[in-house]
Design a protein that fits this description.
Blueprint: H1 2-5, H2 24-31, E1 37-38, E2 40-45, H3 60-66, E3 74-76, E4 82-84, E5 87-92, E6 98-103, E7 108-110, E8 116-119, H4 122-134, H5 150-154, E9 166-170, E10 173-177, H6 185-188, H7 199-205, E11 223-229, E12 233-238, E13 252-257, H8 265-271, E14 277-280, H9 287-293, E15 299-300, E16 307-312, H10 327-337, H11 340-349, H12 352-364, E17 380-381, E18 384-385, H13 386-397, H14 399-402, H15 417-430, E19 438-445, H16 449-466, E20 471-478, H17 480-486, E21 500-506, H18 514-517, H19 546-551, H20 554-565, H21 571-588, E22 591-595, E23 601-604, E24 628-629, H22 635-648, E25 653-654, E26 675-676, E27 699-701
Helix pairs in contact: 11-15, 12-16, 13-21, 20-21
């Protein structure tokens, strides 16, 4: 089985094209390898949405739905190209600072019943960004320092939004002015923070905009939300009047709630026609039977750009989900978690291979292991990968710990009991007045057996290496509502209730290392709340957590990230500076990456490579372009689809040559209008990773 599922590494070109649709040759070739199509996609889900405000929420449980209801300026096709959507085209000024988009006439807003309301215009994009600022969007860091004047507006240095660098020149001309050239800016336009909102509708609904009812938003996208019933069903229906309806092949998308308590139920649901795919779990008793029944129809997902992390709460304020019994234990744990040597001891004591066997079994355990927040092949520095550059900086920082380290995916770079024990002794010498064992609370969703088993594996790994007389891991079993409130749904630091968690994840937003590394900036990083700090959005804002924030060392980290961000004339130097920042973050062990999404075995009816692809951002969550067939995809069909995709994918010049900006022309050839990221990945286009299935307890924030 392992041999038959092995895939070649795809050197995927994420081209930022200005061109329009896929060529007719590609379309016809794809059709030849597609079975009989059905008009519905069916799946399960685990977590209810918490908001439909697509300009506010960064959470995958929300955005995985809303991206199907709203079209932005650009979108991704099946090959990762950025193709026109609401924008017909765009031009970039010679200095790379001004992006001018021509809005496609006739794209209409509809209510949830499909009734036409108004036309989507350039003014709606201005309204959308202003609304995002007004509600202090979780996604503000994506553009706050990018768009001219926006940071000053957020901080109150300017009070007139018309001074911010977003202008509706007329109904069909939109202009963004940037602080610095960003050749990857188009990849940001696929994100909700830059989506449009109709001002008249916003005024009519007020604070109810984006609340959990289908009528709280307008729709200009491929689907309408027809049903949203908590812990029951989420359903989309095709927007029959959608401007590009010919590229929407599904009439309905239906999610049915499942709490994940029975991991074998997904096989039965698939057999009953209730879901369009199921994951094949090598750890389940039915695995051998499934292999036999679906011989020749089991394929494998590929690794993505996402990273999942063992993440510490450096400033825990809430202590309800706990195995501790005294305030002294809470304080001792707080002091230990703030100690770098203690966190490093955890990093070197974490046996990722054994941990991943709980999900993939022994045979596939290493496939998804990731060692860095930034994917090691995300960008290249000439002939050196980003991961190799990080390894070089780590060796310079601490040869004793990191000499010869290999940070590639698919193997554990850090597990070393001897180093872990030595680091623990160092931590104990630095921690005064602390009683042992240090007790670490980890929240666990009690209804999902895999979540329980992975927590037990983590406990065994850390206690075996470090000694249970020194460290005890307390898996705290929680029902779904309590678990989500303590983790993913916590919006302020005071609600976060754990010492560390193994289910925090990040999906890159755009095609630059900053999309990963900015999330831990000490005042406005997107992942501040999960590590115990509220963002400081305005300069001079009082910080009740100043002491712990300073002790975290993240201000030193911010200096490295900001230094990298300031380099705009030499891409190798920029990436090397970001590699140095990643090395600092790795050494600090505040967040310990352990895996990426993908590599699951599955049986699927989703036509391979039919849906949109994006290594960064939310494009891959869309159901536009996606096709579903009546029969499962065979391995031969998958291979033929892959060969077809690989042979027809577009190539272009490296994005590195465009770092200082470019002047694009609508009449330029397709090759001239493409930019390539240096990413090498094994990614397949939109498939089962589009949803928060109960089979996947790991949920990614965006």
């Amino acid at each position: 089985m392992k041999k038959s599922l092995r895939k070649v590494v795809v050197s995927f070109v994420t081209a930022l094209t200005l061109g329009s649709a896929v060529s007719p040759l590609m379309a016809s070739a794809q059709d030849e390898i597609v079975g009989d199509l059905v008009p519905e996609y069916k799946a399960t889900y685990l977590g209810d949405p918490t908001s439909l405000d697509y300009t506010f929420s960064m959470r995958d449980s929300n955005t995985s739905h809303t991206v199907n209801f709203i079209d932005g300026l650009y979108e991704n096709d099946q090959f990762g190209n950025y193709i026109p959507s609401v924008a017909e085209s765009h031009e970039v000024s010679e200095d790379g600072l001004v992006y001018t988009y021509k809005i496609r006439p006739g794209i209409m807003w509809y209510d949830n019943n499909g009734n036409e309301v108004a036309e989507t215009t350039a003014h709606d994009f201005v309204t959308g960004l202003k609304h995002a600022v007004d509600v202090q969007s979780e996604m503000l860091p994506i553009v706050q320092s990018s768009i001219k004047g926006l940071n000053d507006y957020v901080n109150g240095k300017i009070t007139d939004f018309e001074e911010v660098g977003v202008k509706a020149i007329d109904d069909y001309t939109l202009e963004y002015t940037l602080e610095e050239p960003e050749p990857y800016f188009n990849s940001k336009t696929t994100y909700g923070i830059l989506y449009p909102i109709n001002q008249e509708f916003l005024d009519s609904v007020g604070d109810d905009f984006g609340s959990l009812t289908p009528d709280s938003i307008l729709y200009n996208g491929a689907f309408l939300l027809s049903n949203l019933t908590a812990k029951s069903e989420i359903e989309y229906t095709k927007n029959e009047n959608y401007w590009d309806a010919d590229n929407v092949f599904l009439d309905t998308v239906q999610y049915t709630y499942n709490d994940g308590s029975d991991p074998e139920v997904f096989y039965r649901l698939y057999k009953d026609g209730a879901v369009s795919y199921f994951l094949v779990n090598p750890t389940l008793p039915i695995y051998d039977d499934v292999k036999e029944e679906f011989d020749g129809y089991i394929t494998q997902q590929q690794r993505t750009g996402s990273a999942f992390l063992l993440q510490f709460n450096l400033n825990r304020l809430k202590h309800e989900a706990t195995g501790k019994t005294t305030d002294k234990q809470h304080e001792d744990t707080h002091q230990a978690v703030l100690n770098k040597a203690f966190r490093q001891a955890i990093m070197f004591a974490f046996d990722k291979h054994t941990y991943m066997t709980q999900k993939f079994g022994e045979e596939f355990a290493d496939t998804d292991i990731r060692n860095l927040l930034v994917a090691p092949e995300f960008v290249m520095l000439d002939d050196e990968s980003f991961g190799e550059a990080v390894a070089r900086h780590l060796e310079e920082m601490n040869p004793e710990l990191y000499e010869g380290i290999n940070l590639e995916d698919g193997q554990d770079a850090f597990f070393n009991p001897e180093k872990a024990q030595k680091l623990l002794e160092q931590a104990k010498s630095e921690l005064e007045g602390v009683d042992y064992p240090i007790q670490l609370d980890i929240p666990v969703l009690e209804t999902v057996p895999q979540a329980v088993n992975t927590a037990k594996s983590l406990k065994a790994s850390l206690e075996d290496v470090l000694g249970s007389e020194n460290v005890v891991v307390n898996p705290v079993l929680l029902n779904q509502d309590t678990y989500l409130n303590a983790t993913f749904n916590a919006t302020v630091a005071a609600e976060v209730d754990y010492d560390f968690t193994n289910e925090s994840g990040w999906i890159p937003d755009y095609l630059d290392p900053s999309t990963f590394l900015d999330i831990y900036l000490p005042t406005n990083g997107t992942f501040l709340v999960p590590i115990g700090f509220d963002p400081i959005l305005k300069e001079g804002q009082e910080d009740p957590y100043a002491e712990a924030r300073e002790a975290s060392g993240l201000y030193e980290y911010a200096e490295l990230v900001n230094a990298a961000d300031a380099i705009n004339d030499d891409l190798n130097a920029r990436y090397d500076a970001y590699a140095k920042a990643q090395a600092w973050l790795t050494d600090a062990a505040i967040a310990i990456p352990f895996n990426t999404l993908g590599s699951n075995l599955r049986v699927t009816n989703v036509v391979p490579f039919s849906g949109p692809y994006s290594f960064a951002g939310t494009g891959q969550r869309r159901f536009k372009f996606v096709k579903v067939q009546s029969e499962p995809v065979s391995f031969e069909q998958w291979q033929a689809a892959y060969d077809n995709w690989s042979a027809n994918k577009l190539d272009g010049s490296s994005i590195s040559s465009e770092i200082s900006g470019s002047d694009t022309d609508e009449s330029a050839s397709e090759e001239e209008m493409m930019e390539e990221s240096a990413e090498e990945t094994e990614e397949e286009s939109a498939d089962e990773t589009q949803e928060d299935s109960a089979e996947e307890t790991e949920e990614a924030a965006e």
